[in-house]
Amino acid sequence: MQGPALDKIFLARPARTDRVYSKLSKFEAGVSPYSKRYLELGYTPEETELLIAFRVTPRSGTSIEEAASAIAAESSVGTWTEVELGDEEKYSKFKARVYRIDDNIAYTSYPLVLFEENSIPNILSSVVGNIFGFKAVSALRIEDMRIPLPLVNTFLGPAFGINGVRKVLGVKDRPMTGSTVKPKLGNSPKEHAYVAYNTLRGGIDTVKDDENLNSQSWSNFYERADETLKAVEKAEKETGESKGWWANVTAGDTEEMLKRCKYVAKNGGKFVMVDYLTVGFAATASLRKLTGELGLALHCHRAMHAVIDRQSNHGVEFKVLAKWARLVGVDHIHTGTGVGKLEGEFQDLKDRCNLLRKSYTPKEGGLYFDQPWGDIKTVVPVASGGLHPGHVWKVYETYGKDAFFLFGGGCHGHPAGSFAGAKAVRAAVEAAAAGVSPQEAAQKSKELQQAIELWGGVTF
Fold it and tell me: Which of 165, 199, 203, 365 is the most exposed place for a label (fewest CB within 10 A)?
């Protein structure tokens, strides 16, 4: 449920048209340094303001004070020259302020009045907007963002959260497991379902489509759904466990994605998946609204994230992308592994988990601000990208039990196939959660022993 309307907190409302016309008068035209109006070092932000820590690399010949002030102007109410109606009273109610600069980190505050409720697109259009292409900077990165509680409370957040997802799967005292069907592309719906069935009956809790498996000529989404959901049901009957399929509903338009969600729910599915960055936050928000009504948990793949977050001096830190995803309302999101094929440091992964799993995230672990979450539910972090069963102990050390451990080739590339690969994964996860060493666990599971022998020396 959304929180109180933001207009109760807004500082100003539009003036009557006749009054505006009556107030028109000559203004002082000209061009002034941005820092004259937007640099207010020592300013103390209100609790209701949105805060950003920008890493600013000014272009040659531009001071960081002027570059940061240009960012504050462009991302709020300013422009490059003085304009009619741009009086100081209006600036003070709507303008961003650079209130602190530490080395190349510029702390900037934004009045709550600038933002529409329940809208990540509005936040991005406002504070990301044009500024990354500004001539005043040669590079720019958002290191952190504090979304104020009144704005947080307008978002839906996850429908299930960690506890809800655990309840769906009936998994209590160990990490939940998943597997991406491989090969990721080229399987017919029946082949896809065959791999899913063997994986699920082998002991893995869920299977998923890969990020680029949508509805191609060789795997129509609806045919794949029919076959895979039957495989899930069959595996549930054989194992006595709850199983799931993360159906990738990503499509070329939002209407088709919503149609696919309805089809999954109608045919007994429990989960759907979306590539949230490629479809956009508005489309993801529409999915969250519908999936909540249908009782489906929403899985979030981060395809395209590294285009935005990988460079250390330009883009948006992944933890900020994760904050936006949590507000929109995904139930689980890929966060990396540290040991697999994707970039990621162990401590940074722990910090990402804290961001997703805590009800209040303190200013630590690379964060520049405390972040209140109000009643927004938690998100399950997903360790994925090049994992095999031998990695489980290190991943468990990083993630703990409140996570999904996701295996692709590290399940289906097992010498005895997907069924055996899934058994190896299950043995490893249960052993790690119970404090049993890899050596001891491998003595009790030939499938795990085979997996460790095959992949133990692999490095990325």
Answer: 365
